[in-house]
Amino acid sequence: MITVGFFTCNVWYEFGYGETLYSWFSTICYRLEEGEWGSKYPVTMDILYYDEENGIPYSMIDVFEKEIDEIKKAFSKLKPSDAIWSCEEHIYTVPLGKPNINYEAVTLREFYINNRGKNIFDFLHQVIESVRFWKKEDDCNAKLTIRAEDNI
User: Fewest C-beta in 10 Å: which of 26, 66, 70, 95?
Assistant: First the structure.
């Protein structure tokens, strides 16, 4: 099982199981972008997900936060049964017993959780604030990338 998280300025914020994070992206694509990856949320879906080396530059953090807020609002209107495990593999239901899933959630907004039980949207806002903090404190190359635990 691969553990993934978000990396900025030499600080790693652990999310959890990589396949569950991919499920979150798959659900965005399938439910909110009509199956067209990155068509509505290009910073989240294309830059964060696909550009593992460069990630989201600090200059685009506000756009990323706006996309996350829009996704959060849309997920608040969807049920957990609307979650997609993998749009690429055409697995349209989330298997039982997977880590980083809140099976007691009422909406998709609370469905995806990190290893500490925080929903993904609150977690991502914490990460975004950390990017801003490190840019201000350290003036580091404050970009945001997804990394596997063995690649930090």
Answer: 95
Q: Are 1 and 115 in contact (CB under 8 A)?
A: no
Q: What is the pTM of this model?
A: 0.94
Query: What residue ranges do the domains of the chain occupy?
Result: 3-140
Specify whether the CB–CB gap between 46 and 38 falls below 8 A.
yes
pLDDT tens, position by position, 88-144 = 898 899 999 999 999 999 999 999 999 999 999 999 999 999 999 988 877 677 789
Containing 23, the helix (H) or strand (E) segment is helix 18-27
In the structure encoding, which two tokens stand for residue 19, read together? 């396949």
Distance CA 87, CA 66 (A): 24
